[in-house]
Amino acid sequence: QVQLVESGGGLVQPGGSLRLSCAASERDFSRYAMGWYRQAPGKQRELVASIRSGGNTNYTDSVKGRFTISRDNAKNTMYLQMNSLKPEDTAVYYCNRALAMIRWSWGQGTQVTVSS
């Protein structure tokens, strides 16, 4: 059973920045495409950024130019650098496999709140 632990969320003012981290217990972490997802109150969970095992990245339109996804396979860790944050970025952020039919069990997520 792969465990995913997200961290780094918090309360930030509009225009601010946060860096999220995702630690995975999967030994072969480097093999998998990974993604950052978010779920705002009353909305479905959405994929906001993904990174393939080779490093290719993709972003949903609403975060392009503001968010950067990266990974450190030696540490089984993935990151999401979020800049120029907006109130509409407020959500619980999760990490999991991306571009796959099967995902691992979801972690507890990390709350990001953008508010003045």
Fold topology:
Elements (H helix, E strand, L loop, with lengths): L3 E4 L2 E3 L5 E7 L9 E6 L6 E6 L5 E3 L7 E6 L4 E6 L8 E7 L12 E5 L2
Summarize the structure.
The protein has strands spanning 4-7, 10-12, 18-24, 34-39, 46-51, 57-59, 67-72, 77-82, 91-97, 110-114. The chain has 116 residues and is mainly β.
Describe this structure in words.
The structure is a single chain. This protein starts with a strand and ends with a strand. It has no helices and ten strands. It is mostly beta strands. The protein has strands at 4-7, 10-12, 18-24, 34-39, 46-51, 57-59, 67-72, 77-82, 91-97, 110-114.
What's the N-to-C terminus distance? Answer: 39 Å
**Number of contiguous helices:** 0
Strand content: over 45%
Q: What is the succession of H and E elements?
A: EEEEEEEEEE
Helical fraction equals under 10%
Q: Biggest β-sheet, characterized?
A: 6 strands, mixed
* Overall shape: globular
In the predicted model, the low-confidence regions spanning at least 5 consecutive residues are none
Evaluate the radius of gyration. Answer: 13 Å
Structural class: mainly beta
Average pLDDT metric: 96
- Tell me the strand order in the biggest sheet: 2-10-9-4-5-6
How many strand elements?
Answer: 10
